[in-house]
């Protein structure tokens, strides 16, 4: 059972990076302010990241379920993701997005999001100079409290290093029953990243590896340094706290979806079979409530293997 604990789906990009608007162009190209970037693979002709495209990539690689997060870069995709959840209830768990950059609106916006039926909320990384929001500010603490009371799950990306670790420690102290999943493997490889990993010593905190191949993109497959980082984290917090994620489709501008998975599936020789199964899917199934299934799914045979 393999579950992708961090991917992105969107209909139309209408986001921002700091004060810069983000708009789609064509063939996976996006415009951030006045600059052009390859924001996703070139075969995303209309710049949409649909559930159907994701399912094709997942099934090719042998992945059955996925956790969908959100990011200000893409814009609010709440309505699209609710439709995806209804259409594919056994395949995806989707997080709603709140604009934490506007704390005064959070109480009202959270109630709207909750009424729509979301079971998870995404808090993207807020580390740009123009965004100075404390994760344990009064307005945000209201959201965390309501989420805990309603049995919701928080997916959160932190600024690199230890910048927001103390704030997270405060949140963990107050909300010991709120499930929290920290993204991007705690910004693995960056200075102070293990302090983020150690947050998972708390019973309700988990770490997912979405975007890990981006963090270690300079070395490329088989990502030996990334494997070493996983080994270090495993030793620090135990195998029950770690989950695999791809950060599909953005990381696919560098590497394939299979490559985001295979360095763990076929590498990481330090893992036992039990640890590997937990990392690749069993932990995410427990956190997000995916039921065991009888579908036998394995990677497609590649034409180049003939």
Which spans have pLDDT < 50 for at least 5 consecutive residues? none
Number of helices: 10
CA radius of gyration: 18 Å
In terms of quaternary structure, the protein is single chain
CATH homologous superfamily annotation: Metal-dependent hydrolases
Order of the strands making up the biggest sheet: 8-9-10-11-12-13
Q: Could you please describe the fold and organization of this structure?
A:
With 306 residues, this protein is α/β, with parallel strands linked by helices. It has one domain: TIM Barrel (Alpha-Beta Barrel). Helix content is 33%, strand content 16%. The protein is built from 10 helices and 13 strands. The chain has a 6-stranded parallel beta sheet with strand order 8-9-10-11-12-13, sandwiched between helices. The protein has a 4-stranded antiparallel beta sheet with strand order 2-3-4-5, with no helix packed on it. Strands 1-6-7 form a 3-stranded parallel beta sheet. Strand 9, helix 4 and strand 10 form a beta-alpha-beta unit. The protein is globular. It starts with a strand and ends in an 18-residue tail after the last helix. The relative contact order is 0.15. The model has no long low-confidence stretch (mean pLDDT 95).
SSE order and pairing:
Elements: E1 3-8, E2 15-17, E3 20-24, E4 29-32, E5 35-38, H1 51-61, E6 65-69, H2 78-87, E7 92-94, E8 96-97, H3 106-116, E9 120-123, H4 138-149, E10 153-156, H5 165-174, E11 179-182, H6 193-197, E12 205-208, H7 212-215, H8 224-237, E13 242-243, H9 257-265, H10 273-288
Parallel strand pairs: 1-6, 6-7, 8-9, 9-10, 10-11, 11-12, 12-13
Antiparallel strand pairs: 2-3, 3-4, 4-5
